[in-house]
Design a protein that fits this description.
single chain; 114 residues; alpha/beta; four-stranded parallel β-sheet; 35% helix; globular; binds iron/sulfur cluster
């Protein structure tokens, strides 16, 4: 089974107003729905924190401590497709930083659930 890391927007998840990361990304990964082409095992799940500088090192730390290099990294839909968007960085730019640092493919968005 494909192993994936999911990164969510902490400013949204921790606000208490939106999805607190409770099920949407996890359901989409488990069932292979949304942007997951197949049922996938989530081996890391953590949040970005403004202004986004922690994402790359935290992903590196997750891989180091878990001793698992995922097959792909997914930005949650709240991170990749929010309106209005992130005021600090474009998801595409952050994805490129991860791809350059790790060689891992980054998928923008996880699901279309409401
Ligand atoms: S930097 Fe952007 S993506 Fe990261 S937590 Fe803040 S608003 Fe969300």
């Amino acid at each position: 089974m494909k192993q994936v890391a999911v990164i969510g927007c902490g400013a949204y998840i921790n606000s208490g107003y939106g999805c607190p990361g409770e099920w949407r990304c996890l359901k989409a990964a488990a069932l292979g729905e949304g942007t997951f082409n197949e049922p996938s095992q989530v081996v890391a799940f953590f949040t970005c924190e403004c202004p986004g500088r922690t994402v790359v090192p935290n992903l590196g730390m997750a891989m180091k401590l878990s001793q698992i290099k995922p097959d792909a990294v997914y930005f949650s839909s709240c991170m990749a497709k929010s309106k209005p968007g992130c005021p600090y960085t474009k998801p595409e730019d952050l994805a490129k930083m991860i791809e350059n640092a790790t060689g891992l493919q980054v998928v923008l968005g996880t699901h279309d659930y409401h």
